[in-house]
Amino acid sequence: MDEHLQAVLAAMASFFLVTLILFIILVICKSGSNRHRVDSSISRDRTRNRGQTRSITVPKTELSSTSVSESATFDPDLNRISMQELIHATRNFSPDLIIGDGSFGLVYKARLNSGTVVAVKKLDADAFQGYREFRAEMETLGKILHPNIVKILGYCATGKDRVLIYEFIEKGNLDQWLYDSSSSSADDGYDVETRLPLSWDTRIKIIRGVAEGLAFMHISDTPIIHRDIKASNVLLDENFEAHIADFGLARRIEQSHSHVSTQVAGTMGYMPPEYFHGTIATVMGDVYSFGVLMLEIITGRRPSFPFPGEDGKEVRLMEWINKMAKQDLYMEMVDASISKDGLKESTVKEIFQIGLKCTNENFKFRPTMKEVGKDLDKILASN
């Protein structure tokens, strides 16, 4: 055979062999990646409440945002806990210990070496999302202390891993108490009990607690915007006191500023209308979300889920409440599971009107959270 032809055939064979090897390697890598995503999806799905909405963000593309300095400002008294201790406390982050799903990571119930029972949130390994939430929580939640705001007890930062450790709040989140009447079990990490419908007084107590926590955040020396107030981000302790949680989307407003410029973030149904027309976030955005939450608590209806209105047509919460309020039908909007015995219609109307003020389409006409707290105190004092 001609030497030139032999060389050509040899080159073609070599090229084919190398291409085949690269293709096999690519298939193996892709298969492993898909398995990882499926396993992750399964772990997350088991923690989500039925119908519970998820936080959303529109991530920026600048890679420089992922490099977070470990010297970010936060409470220097926070404990730095080793990954080895956390692996032991969570049985290597066992799915059996999952008690929740934060905006960017799963939450586990664990007992530290000290004997303290805590909630451990392991942030997603994704560099952008994980690092950003870690910094957001450390620079906001790590610097404030209030009875209606969940306490951060420590953290772990090693390699790509970012873990936050919080106080464990006994009764889980408000979303579960509003919509899940089944018995909680040892499997979900909380006390075994049947979730009875929350009474009117307990709901007002929860509303008052959230208002107190937000007012404290908004009037701090460096105000903090939560940006994701919703039922699943309100935890309830053994006395049904409210604790605001999940500060992964929170931002501080530096002095001389009245807002922060940022990407759209929050949860559909709770997000203020101005968030859809720009990228400026103010404390009044939290006021709107609080108003929606407040109205959700007393009606027992999810803000993002359509339901049949009085005329049989599908309607969403805020549209329905505004229509009913114009007809002065306030008692008819109260959650059917709440006992009406001794419940004054005038009180119900006043509570609804506070929620409607907070959800004014124009943020300039919304009250501050401090004003909301005063209005709630007046109503409670008169009853």
Descriptive report:
It is built from 9 helices and 18 strands. With 383 residues, the protein is α+β, with helices and mostly antiparallel strands. The protein folds into 2 domains: 104 residues, Phosphorylase Kinase, domain 1 (2-Layer Sandwich); 215 residues, Transferase(Phosphotransferase) domain 1 (Transferase(Phosphotransferase), domain 1), CATH 1.10.510. A 6-stranded mixed beta sheet has the order 2-6-7-5-4-3. The protein has a two-stranded antiparallel sheet with strand order 1-15. Strands 8-9 form a two-stranded antiparallel ribbon. A hairpin with a 5-residue loop joins strand 17 and strand 18. Helix 5 packs antiparallel against helix 9, helix 6 packs antiparallel against helix 8 and helix 8 runs antiparallel to helix 9. The longest helix has 43 residues. The N and C termini lie far apart (106 Å).
Per-chain topology:
Elements: H1 3-45, E1 55-57, E2 79-80, H2 83-89, E3 98-102, E4 105-111, E5 117-123, H3 127-139, E6 152-158, E7 161-167, H4 174-179, E8 183-184, E9 193-194, H5 200-218, E10 224-225, E11 234-236, E12 242-244, E13 251-252, E14 260-261, E15 265-267, E16 280-281, H6 283-299, E17 307-308, E18 314-315, H7 317-326, H8 345-358, H9 369-381
Parallel strand pairs: 2-6
Antiparallel strand pairs: 1-15, 3-4, 4-5, 5-7, 6-7, 8-9, 10-13, 11-12, 14-16, 17-18
Helix pairs in contact: 5-6, 5-9, 6-8, 8-9
